[in-house]
């Protein structure tokens, strides 16, 4: 879904006249929705390919959109890689090519963002964004429509939340 599509759908959901609100208000709400989804729901995974010519440990500074390290592997193989992460600096030992998979923060959406911008969050969560926009705009003058939009937003976000993986481990000889 594009930014333009989300704004148009929000206007339909909330029976909003697009001309009554500034474009920057719609854009700001779309940015908020994408950030909330990015934090609560499916991770946005980005990949960096790093090629190291020399032996030894090399420091690699992760990009500004780095949020969390997902995994590192040798390029085109599943071989383990020795590394250490300190802040946003990654120290990789050995030479060769490495693929760094990391969870990224979605880009900011602002007034200079084109209407053709496609949301970076998982496609299955795009349909929730117009409900957030409609809720935020309608809550000051139409509580019934706002509540309906909020209910839909909460429903779609709850369905899209990532499942926390946990390890079940039997504890033996504990009383």
Provide a descriptive summary of the structure in words.
Among the domains are: 1-42 and 106-124, no CATH class; 45-104, no CATH class. It is 33% helix and 23% strand. It has 4 helices and 6 strands. The strands form 2 sheets. It has a 3-stranded antiparallel β-sheet, with no helix packed on it. A 3-stranded antiparallel β-sheet has the order 2-5-4, with no helix packed on it. Strand 4 (83-86) and strand 5 (89-93) form a beta hairpin. Helix 1 packs across helix 3, helix 2 (23-40) packs across helix 3 (129-138) and helix 3 (129-138) runs antiparallel to helix 4 (143-160). The protein is elongated. It starts with a helix and ends in a 15-residue tail after the last helix.
Summarize the structure in short.
With 175 residues, this protein is α+β, with helices and mostly antiparallel strands. The chain is built from four helices and six strands; from the N terminus they run ααββββββαα. Among the domains are: 1-42 and 106-124, no CATH class; 45-104, no CATH class.
